[in-house]
Specification:
Distance between the termini: 114 Å
CATH class of the largest domain: Mainly Alpha
Number of strands: 0
Keywords: Membrane, Transmembrane, Transmembrane helix
Strand content: under 5%
CATH architecture of the largest domain: Up-down Bundle
Number of helices: 9
Largest sheet: none
Structural class: mainly alpha
CATH topology of the largest domain: Rhopdopsin 7-helix transmembrane proteins
Number of domains: 2
Radius of gyration: 28 Å
Order of helices and strands: HHHHHHHHH
Length: 243
């Protein structure tokens, strides 16, 4: 008969074996923690984006040609913003000019985004518009409380359309008031209102009949013209501040 006995390990061998097992265990635990942190961060980011607006990829860019045209018609915003920055004298006016350039950049990001990232690209586009409306509010109504400005900035990722609409209503009411007080602003205000109404018509038309081509392109052109017309009001505000 064979007399088998388990092989005895020396204290040094036991220590080495235990250290190896402990090392493997620590590696597994570290990998688990990294996986947990990565997964948690990813899920939290996805949940946060789920709370942000707008949702979905939008209803434009049905062809490569339409994408190219929409990118090209985004560039006037950059030119208008640059011109605004050069002409305005106050920090609020220059910030508004920079924000218009941001609107153009956001539109380019959206219309050049691959299908995989169009949801995010559309969010960036809307956020830039919301932030620009807040900058316009500061440029036209510099007495706006800083708390209101901070609240608008905070709310922009979650409700950009609401923020932009609220700012637009306040600014348009002020523009109408100043146009009644100053005759030289009346024509600029009329052109601004006309392009604004036509632009909103295109915005709604795209939502209702998304398959009509180049409606978004028309909205770009009308919006750019309307933003350029707003510079008359910003300049008027700056002139009053220097008196």
């Amino acid at each position: 008969m064979l007399n088998w006995r388990p092989r005895k390990q020396s204290g040094k061998q036991l220590s080495t074996s235990y250290a190896a097992k402990l090392g493997r265990l620590e590696t597994i635990q570290a990998d688990d923690w990294r996986t947990l942190v990565t997964r948690t961060g990813s899920e939290a980011g996805a949940a946060l984006l789920g709370l942000c607006r707008p949702q979905g990829p939008g209803k434009c860019d049905h062809s490569r040609f339409e994408r190219v045209v929409n990118v090209v018609t985004s560039l006037p915003f950059v030119a208008i913003g640059y011109d605004t920055m050069k002409k305005m004298t106050t920090s609020e006016g220059k910030m508004y000019g920079a924000s218009i350039m941001g609107v153009g950049a956001g539109a380019v990001v959206y219309h050049t985004s691959p299908n995989k990232y169009r949801n995010l690209g559309r969010k960036i586009d809307y956020w830039c518009i919301g932030l620009s409306s807040t900058a316009l509010m500061r440029a036209v109504l510099p007495s706006t409380p800083p708390v209101a400005t901070a609240a608008a900035i905070f709310m922009t990722p979650f409700q950009p359309f609401v923020v932009a609409s609220a700012n637009a209503l306040a600014v348009e009411a002020h523009y109408l008031k100043r146009a009644k007080q100053r005759g030289d602003l009346k024509r600029a205000h009329q052109l601004h209102i006309t392009t604004g109404v036509l632009g909103m018509f295109c915005f709604v038309l795209e939502e209702v009949y998304p398959k009509i081509p180049l409606v978004h392109t028309a909205w770009h052109g009308l919006s750019a013209f309307g933003m350029a017309g707003m510079n008359h009001l910003v300049a008027d505000t700056e002139a009053n501040r220097t008196k």
